Amino acid sequence: MTVQAVGESVERLDILTKVQGQRKYPQDFSMPGMLHAVVVWAANPHARIWRIDTAAARQVPGVVAVLTHEDVPVNEYGINEYDQPVLAGDTVRWMGDRVAVVVAETLPAAQEGRDRVQVEYEPLPVVTDPVAAMAPGATLVQAGRGTNVLKHIRVRHGDIEQGFAAADVIIEGRYHTPFVEHAYLQPEAALGYIDEQGRITLIVAAQWPHDDIRQIAHALALSEDQVREIVPAVGGAFGGREDISLQILVALAVQHTRRPVKMVWTREESIRGHGKRHPFTMRHRWGATREGKLTAVEIEAILDAGAYASSSIPVLQNAVSFLAGPYAVPNASLDGYAVLTNNAVTMAMRGFGSTQPPVGYELQMDKLAEALHMDPVELRMRNLLAEGSMAVTGNRMPAGTAVRETLRAAAEAAGWRQVGGAWQRPELESPASSCRKRGLGVACAYKNVGYSFGFPDRSTASVELNLDASGAIALATVRCAAVDVGQGSQTALAQIAAQTLGIDVDRVRVAMIDTAAMPSAGSSSASRHTFMSGQAVLRACREALSKRDAALRQETGVARVAASAVYEGREARHTSPYDPETGQCEPHISYTYGTQIALVDVDVETGEVDVIRLYAATDVGRAINPQMCFGQVAGGVHMGVGYALMEEFVQRDGLIKTASFRDYQIPTIADMPRELISTLVEAPDPNGPFGATGLGETPTLPTAPAILNAIHDATGVWISELPATPERVWKALHLSS
Amino acid sequence: MATLNMVVNGDPVTVEVTPDTLLVDVLRNQLGLIGTKVGCGEGECGACTVLVDGKAVVSCLYPALKAEGRQVLTIEGLSKGGELDIIQQAFIERAAAQCGFCTPGFIMAVKALLLENPRPAPQEIEAALAGNLCRCTGYYQIKEAVELAVQRLNAQGGQP
Predict the structure, then answer these.
(1) pLDDT of the residue at B159
(2) CATH classification of A456-571 is 3.30.365.10, yes or no?
(3) Range 59-98 of B in CB contact (< 8 A) with A
(4) Mean of per-residue pLDDT scores for chain A
């Protein structure tokens, strides 16, 4: 029997219940006798706490408990290091710090109790500028560290002096990217209770449930097997659910009251309480020959880490490896700094340090193209990395390095042609209105798949086969703790299982994620589940098949077989940390690539940018489900368009100015490019299941620089700071000298 | 406390509410209709969209008592007999839901649009859905689903 499951646009496993409104998210769960909990948030971005008075709150009828730092067994958590207090006791460092939790019989009682908690603060100087925060004598965000510089990473590759000496042209630039809010539609929520085995159990949306229980157990002084997370439907994540949000608070309330407790954040609390994408300030200096070959690249990047470490060090590590772009650069000097401030904590968000660098390196590329009077596609083609090229970290690029294929696909779709051996852009029609100017902009980008820099990456999966009397597979149940946050990973895993087992996808079930029922599969991040968990599922299925065949040979009449498997990223490639002096290392397990070309009209009277058409060519290795791949590309472009033109999480003196969806605006259906022309580039990754690679993040990366380059092509002005709002574009057009 | 009588998904319903009770809270907390979602609580995201007497409203801003004597339709009422609405079927075929949290609100907004205008032009579809936020799909597959539903609806020559 030939079954074709991989490569088919099969129906998503979860979509029927989603269109019926039957699929349950954490806020949709309730229990008899449950209590309601609300947070008392920090009232200052940086202050000493002198006194927390809970007496009045406790007297509110219905209030059961008011929990403060004194009630937390081990008052610390954090995904990368334990530097965040569960409940602040002596100092608050950002507006997202939590000071108390009020637990009551009803939500109104809890809210009234919250309003009666009195906290006496002594305001401290607020650190908001990471550059100023690096200076000696700056106010310290975390006094115990002795510095605000969380981490400095340096890369020294080749000979930078010689590289600049060999250059015919030198291009400099300074670029800034803003804080960005994840804006998943489902606000944070959890229902906590004590299960039949006495475990503190949370129904919650998480990206890495097993890492959550590590942090919850630590804070509550429990062992990990005394804590359990069940992950039902997750309403989007994009990195924003990688850190703990309300999990420990709800678990603490359950531990304290021994009753079910529900907490649901409002949109304002969600925006206040979880971290953001890092703002980058980047300084570039590039040298190239007349023929357009890069000779030297010098870059400094300063990342605002916010008040606590969160993932800032891993994000910085990633970012530095991508700062110079997907280009062969013989001589490079890169410095990256992650700096603590009293701004919002910054964390994982779609791209994990690979989203900001293209705003620098792709504008540099176009500035260089302009200086050399060279076509921007042609210039890129002369410098792109290929299999075997040496990266700035000294490693050789692996098989499946497909950035050139993505550039070719996007350029051809947009009308580029090779004339006399060189790429040449298409002629553009003039826009109908005389106040509109039209332009085309190109951007390439790349990022890693899986964990990097020696951090061990592993996924696990098991499969159970129910056999009919003939030994054929009636039903296969896959258990894998890979959270489907909306991207469709469970459907992709079911397709991989079906293909491996030789059955139709409708005979595959994927179990709901429960830390008590399955081991860790790692996080839903780094575009890794199709690759990593796909391999684990594929292996578990192969093992189950051979068990089934062995059982059938013995004619045992066996009706069920089960198998499990582990896949380790180091089977694909051993990675290593940065060398502290030179930064040379083997950074990543695998890479994925994308190119986008934007066709825009700029209204020179209003500064408005209208994206007419966007060509996106995305490396997928192998499209497991082409329709869902398109969905990832389109969703990535949505975030890229927001990043380019609209989105900025604004703070002043540490206070939040974009506190709701009224002020923090994401693109609506009317803000999207009128046409999205997507090409999936299938250059197999030899280590991916059926050749597939990760897809979740790359489609976001090239959008903003492609639009910025198109704005320049249309108008001649460079917008070096995101977002390119009408105001910013208008000022660049009318006020620049 | 006041008594509220309304018809929800075809069934008469009587509940006790206070003057500041919102329709979404009655639906979710008192009637257990959890398909209506709260994404922002201030009418900005559209996840809580339901129909009152055939018109789309954001139920997170709609006072429950205003629904007195009216017909309320939620996502649960669309496929009541087990048969999917033409819009739901189109959303499935075009993979127009990812995380799915905004999906019921989008489908109800489309329902209201097609009740009023069974042959919307692309710009009319955009205008009708500009109040609904989605962070996952980029909207293209949603637009395709609406176009598919419109096409089928008109092939049937019927009302939605």
Answers:
(1) 64
(2) yes
(3) 74-76, 78-79, 84, 88, 91-95, 97-98
(4) 97
